[in-house]
Specification:
Elements: H1 18-26, H2 31-37, E1 43-44, H3 45-51, H4 57-70, E2 73-77, E3 85-89, H5 91-94, H6 97-108, H7 121-131, H8 134-137, E4 142-148, E5 151-157, E6 164-165, E7 174-178, H9 181-189, E8 201-204, H10 206-213
Parallel strand pairs: 4-7
Antiparallel strand pairs: 1-3, 2-3, 4-5, 5-6, 7-8
Helix pairs in contact: 6-7
Length: 223
């Protein structure tokens, strides 16, 4: 007798291991990156295509359908006046973040990881949640806004945790503004001086902003 999950679990590996099932759900090309982009909230189809410029409309449709069938995300229609259709992770889908973080941390240890490639705004936000050095963040409280390529986020550091939400940056203690995420990544991870990052500006409490940029660290290369 076939399992009721035959369309997902066992379709590639015929293996009961949870890792095998995870790969069957998220192992298709682009699938995990679609989940990454939805990790900070629901998005429209057009938003996902803009965040993942290398994906075709056909492939994105296929991945969204597969992830919906697997129970990773759901389609919703926003109430009037918008009435736009959006895609949102399920509770189970949101629980993929630790796996994404650990994969990112593992990959960053490779000498073949190229940090100069394009980075999506959500990719930057999740990288900060991943690379926060909690010892350095002890005792630091901060409300930081980001405006990156038209996308706005709010990071509220408290008790060595860094929740990040999609919301207006206005009202934050300090606001980072940049046309692309790689500029902020260069400041935070590579220590590039602000003067050498044209297009990146910081408003508000500069002392706090500078302190915030010192709280993140990439792991050492080992392979």
């Amino acid at each position: 007798m076939k399992s009721p999950n035959e369309t997902q679990h066992g379709k590639w590996y015929d293996d009961a291991c949870g890792t095998a099932f995870a790969l069957e759900v998220l192992g298709e090309r682009w699938a995990l990156l679609v989940v990454r982009e939805l990790m900070l909230g629901a998005l429209r189809f057009s938003d996902l295509r803009a965040a993942l410029p290398g994906i075709s409309a056909k492939v994105l449709t296929e991945r969204l359908t597969g992830l919906e069938e697997a129970g990773v995300l759901v389609r919703k229609t926003l109430p009037p006046p918008g009435k736009a259709q959006v895609y949102e992770l399920t509770e189970w889908g949101y629980h993929a973040e630790p796996a994404i973080q650990e994969l990112g941390r593992w990959a960053a240890r490779s000498i073949k990881h190229d940090a100069h490639l394009p980075l999506s705004p959500v990719g930057l936000m999740l990288s900060m949640r991943t690379m926060l050095v909690r010892k350095k963040a002890k005792g630091v409280t901060a409300d930081i806004g980001f405006v990156v390529g038209g996308h706005e986020f709010r990071a509220r550091l408290h008790d060595r945790t860094l929740p990040i939400t999609r919301e207006a940056a206005a009202g934050a203690q300090a606001i980072f503004r940049a046309p692309v995420a790689s500029l902020i990544a260069g400041l935070i991870y590579a220590g590039v001086p602000l003067a050498d990052l044209p297009g990146l500006t910081i408003e508000g409490d500069m002392k706090l902003a500078r302190k915030f940029t010192t709280l993140f660290e990439l792991p050492p290369k080992i392979g």
